[in-house]
Amino acid sequence: MKNTELRISNYCMNKEELFQVLCGPDIDFAEDFTPISITKDWLVNKFRFNDNGGGYYQHPEYNFFLYHIEEDEYFECYKQVPANDDSGDYKTLQHVHKLQNLFFELFDEELEVRE
Question: What is the number of domains present in the chain?
Fold first, then answer.
């Protein structure tokens, strides 16, 4: 991973263990980390999204939806979010840290993990 992708509080894998970036120096070792793929378990059990069926997931407190594109293994924001690239009108997400970063950018709050 690139250190420019990570913020304090992001989750990733450090070897075979779940790791949360807790301070700036952790980011210096980003190349040792691997991203975590977004899964139903992460959305529903850890981030408390509601499973609305049909591949749609909704955050319980914000009007923020994700749609799972199964054949390509990524999640797409349900409402339009500037992608800041040539990929189109929607931001596509595959990794937990990217979802955390986008959520913070949109709502100025951390995407809390249920312990």
Answer: 1
pLDDT digits (tens, 9 = 90+) for 13-37: 998 899 999 888 888 888 889 999 9
Q: Answer yes or no: is 114 within a domain.
A: no
**Bridge partners for 65 per DSSP:** 58
Boundaries of domain holding 32: 3-107
55: exposed, middle or buried (Cβ count in 10 Å: 0-12, 13-18, 19+): middle
d(C-alpha 19, C-alpha 37), whole Å: 14
Quick one: 49 exposed, middle or buried, by C-beta within 10 A (0-12, 13-18, 19+)? Answer: buried
- Sheet containing 65-69: which strands, arranged edge to edge? 50-53, 56-58, 65-69, 74-77, 92-93
Structure tokens at 58: 């909704």
CA 33, CA 64: separation in Å to the nearest integer? 28
Q: How far is CA 18 from the centre of its chain?
A: 15
